[in-house]
Amino acid sequence: MARDVPTSRRAVLLAIFIAFGGFLFGYDMGVISGCLIMPDFIRRFGQEGMDGQYYLSSSRQSIIVSLLSAGTFCGAIAQAFTSDRLGRRGSILFWSAIFTVGVAIQTGTTYSLVQLVIGRYIAGLGVGSLSAIVPLYNGETAPKAIRGTILVIYQVQIISGIFLSYVLELGSHTINNSASWRLPIGLQMVWGIILLSGIFFLPESPRHLLGTGRGNEARKVVAELNGVSEDDSLVIEIVEGLDFAIRAENEGGKATWLECFSTRNALWRRTINGMMLQFIQQLNGQNFYYYYGDTFFQSAGAGLSPYIIQTVLGAVSVFGTLPALYFIEAWGRRKSLLLGAAVQAVCALIVAVVGHTTLAPTGTPTSALTARNRAGGDVVIAFAVFQVFSFGTTWGPTPWVYLGESFPLRVRPKSIALGSATNWFWNFMLSFFSPRIVDRIGPMIMMVFFGMLVFGYIYVYFAIPETKGLTLEEVDELYRSGIPPWRSVGWRPSEKHHHEVHEKGTLDSVEKP
Q1: What are the residues facing 47 on neighbouring strands?
Q2: Per-residue pLDDT for 501 more than 80?
Q3: HEC states along 266-326?
Q4: Residue 225: closest CA among 355, 137, 151
Q5: Are 244 and 408 within 8 A, CB to CB?
Q6: If DSSP states are collapsed to H, E and C, what string results for 94-157?
Q7: Any idea which UniProt keywords this protein has (predicted)?
């Protein structure tokens, strides 16, 4: 009988360290929001108006913000090549270095908008790659019992990074020179160096070691991660299972991108589901607040500084993500997504309607705001905060968890890369077009997100099966069974399936010389 895999302290700490890549992304995403309204930043990278005042046009805002997302899209695809050639460990270190270089280019610019956006694109390459490698590395090194939890921790670190960027800008925006934005942007080099320090203690993925013929090294890593000796039966069992899976993957040659959409085991449905969840997640509306919240809240007419409001929003995001550590397992994937879509849709609708009917036009002096304007602004901010909290509890982590547990090993790296690339593509589209749309329709942009959330609820109900507590092999059977997604809660694999999987593993170990 198979032994339960112990959750060693070293394996847990390594998994949490790798999840730090989420902090790196979150900080980078949040830091640009405050920079967009800093006077020195506007003077250096904006345009001079007819009145002699400098301003950042919607087109410049969209270019500055979206070039990071364009880089992340390319990086998410590129890592599929480096993670096989350089290994998971080597790939993490390589892309951490790329990110650090991109941050250095941004920090070193003076008045060049071109240098700034090139630096953001290069940093984006690192962020996008790491966002795809983390679920891959986590799935191959973290103990099975905590893989879902580690991916939630990854999301917690994203939100924590956003929150820290807001806190730092709350203090730095009062500086009357370039340090106001150089300090929060340049601090990202520290995050990159922290990940680079992993070269001293990060082990290579045992699966990659076996796949490249380094069996002795793989056994040593498995033993270390599980806190046992190399000749322990647990190590033998895990290594034999990995070896069998690798040979099964390689039957019929190397997996291709097209295979991710094959009809075998409904791979096409699983890949589409992973991509669609990432697409819907990006158009929930929360990233609009993260990227352009400071600018948006200026027109809400609240008595607080937009920096303070954004900091409160970041704190709410952090606290909203913490319950997900419990709810994603207690509720399951479907219920988390369905409930999250419904609650966020109500919030987006209220923000759109109240904002459109009560907020003063952008640029209205604070002294000219009426009681109705201020009351409307309070409602907008309250429901924006509630929407971000709901996102953190549900749609923030759940699509990433679903992505990490939906694919067989043969196509897993490529399918996860497609899901991550989808996330970053729509992140780019959102960050590029949002300021242009807001210029035209103002708060009614939230109706776009409302419509997407309604669509998301319908899509999850009819297309996303429950995968809580299932192994990769059991997910295969779930999709083969043809059970409707809305009846998949509580589904259990057949005894025949378990018997066949056990027989394959036993047969393989008997045939080994």
Answers
A1: 55
A2: no
A3: HHHHHHHHHHHHHHHHHCCCHHHHHHHHHHHHHCCCCCCCHHHHHHHHHHHHHHHHCCHHH
A4: 137
A5: no
A6: HHHHHHHHHHHHHHHCCCCHHHHHHHHHHHHHHHHHHHHHHHHHHHHHCCHHHHHHHHHHHHHH
A7: Membrane, Transmembrane, Transmembrane helix, Transport
The tokens describing 477, both together, are 């059977």
Quick one: 496 exposed, middle or buried, by C-beta within 10 A (0-12, 13-18, 19+)?
exposed
Q: Is the pLDDT of residue 239 over 70?
A: yes
Average pLDDT, the chain: 82
In whole angstroms, give the CA distance from residue 387 to residue 301.
19
Determine the Cα–Cα distance for residues 257 and 80; give it in Å rounded to an integer.
10
Task: Name which of 250-259, 337-346, 435-444 the model is least confident about.
Answer: 250-259
Contact partners, residue 209, CB within 8 Å, separation at least 6: 87, 215, 217, 218, 221
Task: Give the SS3 label for residue 47.
Answer: strand
Distance CA 108, CA 126 (A): 18
- How far is the C-alpha of 401 from the C-alpha of 149, rounded, in Å? 9
**Cβ neighbours, 10 Å, residue 48:** 10
What residues have CB less than 8 Å from 1, skipping those under 6 apart?
none
- Highest mean pLDDT pick, 131-140, 183-192, 453-462: 453-462
Query: Could you report the per-residue pLDDT of 244-257, keeping only the tens digit for each?
Result: 777 766 676 677 88
Average confidence (pLDDT) over 219-241:
82
- Of 258, 455, 259, 260, the residue nearest 342 (C-alpha): 455
* Cα 419 to Cα 417: distance, rounded to the nearest angstrom: 5
Q: What is the mean pLDDT of residues 352-369?
A: 80
Write phi, then psi, for 195 (nearest 5 degrees). Answer: -65, -40
Q: Cα dist. 207→256, 356, 409 in Å?
A: 19, 54, 10
For residue 145, give both structure tokens.
């019992």
Dump pLDDT digits (tens) for 304-325: 677 787 788 788 888 888 888 7
Is 203:239 a contact under the CB 8 Å cutoff? no
The Cα 317–Cα 309 span in angstroms is: 12
54 three-state secondary structure: strand
Q: Which residues contact 469 (CB under 8 A, 6 or more apart)?
A: none
